[in-house]
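Running log. JK asked me to keep both predictions on one page so they can be read side by side. First protein, sequence followed by its tokens:
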Amino acid sequence: MTVCALAAAEFHRPGAAVRVDDDTIATAFTSERHLRVDGRAPTTFAPLSRFWATSDGWLRTHANYPHHRARLLASLGVPDTGDEEAAVAAVGAALAGRHGREVEEEVQAAGGLAVAVRDRAEWAASPQGAAAATRPLPELTRLDDAVGDEVPPQPSGLRVLDLTRVIAGPVATRTLALLGADVLRVDAPRLPESEGAHADTGFGKRSTQLDLGRHADRAEFEDLLRQAHVIVTGYRPGALDRFGLAPRELAARRPGLVVARLDAWGTTGPWADRRGFDSLVQAATGIALVEGDGGRPGALPAQALDHGTGYLLAAGVLRALTARRLAAPGSRLIQASLAGTASWLLDGVPPDTALDVPREPAEAGRRHRLRQRDSALGLLRYAPSPVRYVGGPDDWPRPPGPLGADRPVWEAGTPGA
């Protein structure tokens, strides 16, 4: 968090003192839990997103989205009757006699999400664990020596394309929006998104929908790209390549572009092309067992891999922009992964020791820091940003709006728009 605030101050107010408040950071790391829309709390985890006992240990599944839920049930041979209680009972019975690693592979092959719970030694010895531990956090690469357009002197001149979902990527772009950048989130029309996650991470942004498989929508996206300074993607590696959105292809079409890419497991290793979420990475890396109790796995007090990786990615983007503004030419790639953040958190921590991550302050401290404002979604209660420095913004310039409600254009008055 401090690294992100330092990078923001360096870009926006060089030399400005950074402010670090532990309670504000802890509250921000659980922002999705504090969000209220007209007094209503959003749904976070679906009934089938949980730990399950198997014949040889534990398995963690993720089924918050309808298509992931359907793939999980289909891979286990459980009929989808629409009855959640019946589905939970049937899945539990199906898994009780199965080996976790076997189910992990079958569900992943079907496009679902399931990970066998491992201890830290198992993860560290695995090819994917070794791959994740060897990558920088985050990893910055210069793609070319292109000069490109000048980087605006103020964040309010930045144009950011946001192709991210759920928490980690949207936290990164929410941070850029806090500074005043014109952040336009782009979603596919038929891809479902959690209303709660969108509201929590949509502060300061606009939201549009484009089907990159349609010629007209693709043309509008290319128009946006031609004027963008930054593009942030949060899909598994290779998922967007068929649309010409691989980093070097993007840089070739928009010289000087800063490309930020986030994924679950990293860009190398046997799991590089797998889907993943914070809860699954905790299960695979040994964090779930460290945070468990009495042999049953548990979870960190915050989705710290999501939030921490999001702020690290934002810091990388800001450092890349500062380098470009200081006459260091070149398009740049910033990469971060949830597994990489997990490896960093675990590094040097003795076995069976709880991790040092932000933990929520007392109730009085939380309520003192929460804020409220009207929006098109309703009356919002929300956690403020923990990215603070002298002369920096105190809040986002706008509340979140409905998913896909904005036109796919840059704001009037934005330089180059």
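And the second, directly underneath as requested:
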Amino acid sequence: MQSTAKTPDEYINTLPDDRKKALQQLRKTILDNLPIGFKESMGYGMMGYCVPHSIYPSGYHCNPKDPLPFMGLASQKNFVAFYHMGIYADKNLHDWFVAEYGKRCKYKLDMGKSCVRFKKIEDIPYDLIGELVQKISVADWIQTYESVLKK
């Protein structure tokens, strides 16, 4: 479900109260831990965190007019989605996240390539998300992106 909201605040304000609270807390967790250089924005119909063109002028290889995406947050029909391209592109980071998730959450991890789906919003591991967000700097992400994902 893609939103037409123009800002993260507008996006959050369109959500039902239970989802609003979860997305507000996830957003706060991300912003409190976001390395310098990443920028909060809207993209692909969701809240996003990207490397702006002022730092990475080439932009995203799929559409160079877009800044380089890194993370996203979305309220989907049956879950809250947290997208993190680092766990898709870096096997060590992926393995760390999967192991830590199992230690901290009582429900099984529901994860795609870069998407973690939270069906039980009361069990979102905010502390783990905060740690994950801190693990990749803008420079690290650009290097990983160029060596692993950019074609």
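Observation for JK regarding the second prediction: The helical segments are 8-13, 17-33, 85-89, 91-104, 126-134, 138-149.
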